[in-house]
């Protein structure tokens, strides 16, 4: 959207694939999406209900901590804020965790984010995409079909949970999957917030150039 390359990043026209475990295989009969945590009442939605929520189309930049950035991908999906409207939040909710599949565990992957940063068009759960060289298509299973979170460009892309299954509302910040493994809680690419401790790079850093082959 802004086409600004954060420090230490390189532009790619492709859309590399990176994740832990196997891609989730969508099964409509068992799939559900849950809103829980610091809410008056939990809500569980089936896929049809999710797809009947208001549609948002948004063009965003993506910045991966492994140093690739992709500008101007257009997504169709449901704005994060339209899910928030479905629950009554407790007072003082300031953070969320977005959960998704890790192998067979629907809550095995997660990423934490501040709620206040997710209320715009640039924070959305997506199922379709296009860019300047590709026409509209469903996102591939490996990119997170049937529902994948895309965070604002002010967060590295590991905050973008694939195969999303739930939003947990929180009064205090809690680390997600990579944050528990030494990655930054705040993860702003423009300040190069890659790791919790700059001088102590965590294991599992895809610092290699493998994305360049994709
Ligand atoms: N469920 C799930 N979502 C995930 C991951 C994962 O391992 N599991 N990896 C994250 C990381 S580290 C990155 S960089 C992006 C990569 O998204 P892409 O493969 O669509 O480019 O997905 C994020 N979402
Ligand atoms: Mo990543």
TrEMBL record:
Protein name: Sulfite oxidase-like oxidoreductase
Organism: Exobacillus caeni
Cited InterPro entries: OxRdtase_Mopterin-bd_dom, OxRdtase_Mopterin-bd_sf
Start and end residues of each stretch annotated as Disordered: 194-214
PANTHER family: OXIDOREDUCTASE MOLYBDOPTERIN-BINDING DOMAIN-CONTAINING PROTEIN, PROTEIN-METHIONINE-SULFOXIDE REDUCTASE
Domain Oxidoreductase molybdopterin-binding as annotated: residue spans: 25-178
Pfam family, one: Oxidored_molyb
């Amino acid at each position: 959207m802004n086409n600004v390359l954060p420090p230490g990043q390189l532009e790619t026209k492709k859309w590399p694939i990176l994740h832990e475990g196997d891609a989730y295989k969508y099964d409509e009969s068992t799939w559900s999406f849950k809103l829980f945590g610091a809410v008056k009442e939990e809500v569980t939605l089936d896929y049809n209900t999710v797809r009947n929520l208001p549609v948002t189309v948004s063009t965003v930049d993506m910045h991966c901590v492994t140093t690739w950035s992709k500008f101007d991908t257009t997504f169709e999906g449901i704005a994060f804020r339209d899910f928030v409207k479905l629950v009554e939040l407790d007072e003082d909710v300031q953070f969320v965790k977005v959960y998704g599949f890790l192998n067979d565990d629907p809550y095995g992957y997660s990423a934490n984010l501040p709620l206040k940063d997710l209320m715009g068009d640039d924070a959305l759960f997506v199922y379709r995409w296009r860019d300047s060289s590709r026409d509209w298509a469903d996102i591939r299973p490996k990119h997170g079909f049937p529902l994948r979170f895309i965070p604002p460009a002010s967060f590295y892309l590991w905050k973008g949970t694939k195969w999303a299954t739930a939003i947990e509302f929180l009064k205090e910040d809690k680390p997600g999957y990579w944050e528990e493994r030494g990655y930054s809680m705040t993860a702003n690419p423009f300040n190069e917030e890659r790791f919790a401790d700059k001088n102590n790079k965590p294991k599992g850093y895809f610092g290699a150039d493998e994305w360049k082959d994709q």
